[in-house]
Amino acid sequence: MISGIFHSTYEQDMALRHTHAQKIRLAILIVFLLVFPFLANRYYLTLANQIGIAVIGAIGLNILVGYTGQISLGQGGFMAVGAYTAGILTARMGMPWWASTLVACFVTAGVGAAFGLPSLRLKGLYLAIATLAAQEIILWVVTHWKAVTGGVDALVVPNPELFGIRMNTDFNFYWLVWALVILVTFASVNLFRTRFGRAFIAIRDQDIAASVMGVDLFKYKLLAFAISSFWVGLAGALTAHYRSIVTWERFTIDVSVLYLAMIIIGGLGKITGSYLGAIFMTLLPAVLSNLGRVVKGVFPGVEGIIPFIQQATFGLVIILFLILEPEGLNKIWKNIKDYFRLWPFSY
Q: In the chain, what are the domain boundaries?
C-alpha cells in the first residue's frame, strides 16, 4: 500500500506536479479556461477578466507580504503608477500598448523599490504606515501633477490592438489576461525554487538568523519590493488598457485594503491562495448585488443598502477568517484534498 509521496530522482522531487491527481486537476482547469469564454455571456467574461487582473495583483502582493513578510498598504498606489505610466505612454507618446505595459512594469518596480528603502529599518506596523504613506504620496502626485497625469480628470487611453484586432473587448481580453496570469504564476512559482526566493522566505521566517547566515537583508528586501511591484504594475497597466479610462478613483486606499484581504483570505505565502482570494473577493460583491436584485421585490428598501451590506460583509469575512481559519481558503482546499487522498484511512 502506498503510504506517502516518495521520489527516487531529483527531477521528480523538483517537479511542479507530483501526483496524478494534481496533474488531472491541472488538466481540468486548463480545459475549463479554454471552454469558458465560448459559453459565458458578457457579464461573466467581465468578471473573469477582473479576476485575472486581481490574481496578478494578488500574486505580486503575496510575494512581498506572504513570502517575504513585508507588510504593504500601498498596493493601490503602485497599481496607479502602472496604470498611469501605461496610459500616458500610449495616449500621449504614441507607444504601442504592449510596449507601454512593459515599461509600466519596470517603472512601477523602480517606484516600489524606492518606497521599500525604509524596510531595512522598519518592521511590522511601522512598515505598514510607511507603505500607507507611499499610497497617499502617489495619489497626491497623480491628482496634483496636472501637466502629466491630468489631475483629477480621467485619462482616456486608446483601444489596444494586436494585428488589427481590438484587444479590450471582453472576449479578446480574456485570452490576453489569462495568458499573462499563467505566465506570472509560472514565473512566481519558479522564483521560490531559486536562491532569491529562498532568501525571501528566510527573511520572513527570521530576518536576524537570515542575516547571520549571509543573506543581504537590504538587497533582498528591495528586490522583493521590486518584483512585487513589477507584477502589481502589470495589473495596473492591464486595468488601464482594459477600461480605456484611467482615473485616480480606481486606486484609492480601499483597493490596497481589498488586495490585502485577498491574500489574507486566500492564504499568505501560497500562490494558490492568491487565486482563491482574488476569486472570492471579486465574486463576493457580485453575488451580494445579485441577491439584492432578487430580494428587492420582497424587501423594497434593500437595494439602497446593498453597498453598506457589502462593506459589512467584507469586514466580517476578514474577521471570521482571521479567527476561524488564519491560513485562509488555501488551507481549507488542502484539507479537502487530504481527506480524499487519505480516505477511508484518514486517521
A: 19-252
Beta-bridged to residue 166, according to DSSP, are 161
Q: At what angle do helices 20-39 and 170-191 cross, to 10 degrees?
A: 160
The answer to whether residues 65 and 263 touch, using CB atoms and an 8 Å cutoff, is: yes
Contacts of 176 (CB under 8 A, 6+ apart): 167, 238
Cis peptide preceding 300, ω within 30 of 0: no
Neighbours of 197 (CB within 10 A): 20
CA distance 62 to 125: 17
pTM: 0.91
Instruction: Identify whether the C-beta of residue 163 lies closer than 8 Å to the C-beta of residue 42.
Output: no
Q: What does the pLDDT average to over 94-117?
A: 92
Mean pLDDT, all residues of the chain: 87
Q: Answer for the pair 273, 149: CB distance below 8 angstroms, yes or no.
A: no
CA separation (Å) from 45 to 38, 40, 68, 259?
10, 6, 33, 21
Task: Tell the residue number behind the cell numbers 457589502, with chain if given.
Answer: 310
259 touches 63 (CB < 8 A): no
